[in-house]
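Q: Structure tokens for this one, please.
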Amino acid sequence: MMAAALRLGRRNLGRTWPNPAVGAIIVQMEGAGPRIVGRGWTAKGGRPHAEVRALAQAGEEARGATVYVTLEPCSHHGLTPPCADALAAAGVARVVVAMTDPDPRVAGRGIARLEEAGIDVTAGVLEAAARVAHGGHISRVTRGRPWATLKLAVSADGMIGRREGERMLITGKPTFDRVQGIRAEHDAILVGIGTVDVDDPRLTFRQAGATPAEPVRIIVDSTARIRLDSNLVRSARDVPLWIVAGEGADDAGVAALAEAGARVLRVRSGSGGLDIVAVFNALGTAGLTRVLVEGGSRIASSLISNDLADEVFLFRASVVVGPGGVRALDGNALSAIERSPRYRLVEEAQVGDDQMRRYLRTPI
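A: Here is the predicted structure, written as tokens:
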């Protein structure tokens, strides 16, 4: 049941920020076996919460039932009343929780509230899986920054292109489709200004038959020099566009971007560009929980060097670029991921003609 609740929670993953994407199932235990009477997952925008939606579906059948929820029910008053109170008012008999909420406004208080109401509580069921599912929420409330997923599409010899300034497709259509699914589960997509200069991307979700909310597009652009006629800026009023610029960026350029509909965040500079740690801290302050980093090589290398990449999708094609190509990690070899004790391989699959490997940072 908890595994099913975790799957439910993924339905709006990437569309509930700054709230976590929670799943909840309400079950009546009967002689013939458990019968599901209510299902819920956090709505887009973060409200209503999963428990409230499941209770609404269950109605009177929630009384005496068991509730499986992937994160400790909230106990504080925000824009909505506490879910712990709603569960108590519905008369549920038992609540099974995957993990306690690290948010200091909750942090065990939700469980205590349920127990005070006479509800039997079991915690820690599939906790490891829940910590991955709620990695973005955990990261934002404990580290002040979003979960960072790095996506790399590399040639057989570890390159992402022939040379700086030249566009080259490395992986095939099946990988493109898989990346669209990954994009859909993130609050935002981040690239550097160099990638924008070369590709003039849109960074929108493009997959037939699916219409999720578009992730925020984030461009790391220390001088705010992105062209106003780029695909990104021209669509800024339709799909959110954030520019992360340095404190010394030209005020006129920043004003022009704001006028075009972009949001500009200013952060301090580091050696050779913006301080990547400051960038991610600013994104956490802005409410983001999950950010997919798609390029370029300097940003990817900076993530690895600063121990910021929580998850890595590495797609490797059979094509060979050869000498003079652009390395996937500007200042590091791919062994910094593939052979590092900091990362563990959790998934491996063939995607068309490409090989995909997924790594998680340890500990999470």
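A few notes: The longest strand covers residues 33-41. The longest helix spans residues 173-184.
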